[in-house]
Amino acid sequence: MEGTVVGERYQLGAVLGIGGYGITYRGLDLRLERQVAVKEYYPGFWANRLGDHHKEVYCYAEAEESYEKGLERFLDEAKSLVALSHIPEVVRVSDFFRENNTAYLVMDYLDGQNLKQMAQGFGGRFRRRY
Question: Residue 51 pLDDT > 80, yes or no?
């Protein structure tokens, strides 16, 4: 998917992470010429692509209802994050949209360690200190 443009303005770059319900990419906002993070709704257990270079996501026939419910929850999450954008500790969502039979959430790109990487620096766990 690297190099693919979605939303007519966001060019996808390297994969930053893969979770159960999605893939997060480093991206470039071509209009504002700034780095962003783009999260794609992509539950691999319910859907797939025809190949590595296809944008369109195809839902497995037996999972259509679950896929659509998950897609709606993904978009609801985007709306909730937009509403929380005034909180400095919550990543700012600048855009979200449906395309390619899936959905995308565009966020500020924050360079640094994620929570899992930080925990590894503490031996794999955070401990309460008294």
Answer: no
Q: Are strands 102-108 and 34-41 parallel, antiparallel or unpaired?
A: antiparallel
43 residue type, one letter? P
> pLDDT for 73-92, tens place per residue?
999 999 999 999 889 888 89
Strand, helix or coil for residue 98: strand
pTM of the model: 0.83
Domains plus CATH for the chain? 5-120 (3.30.200.20)
What is the sign, positive or negative, of the torsion defined by CA atoms of 93, 18, 52, 28? positive
Among residues 99, 115, 82, 95, the alpha carbon closest in space to that of 38 is found at 95
The residue assigned the tokens 């400095």 is 88
pLDDT above 70: residue 53: no
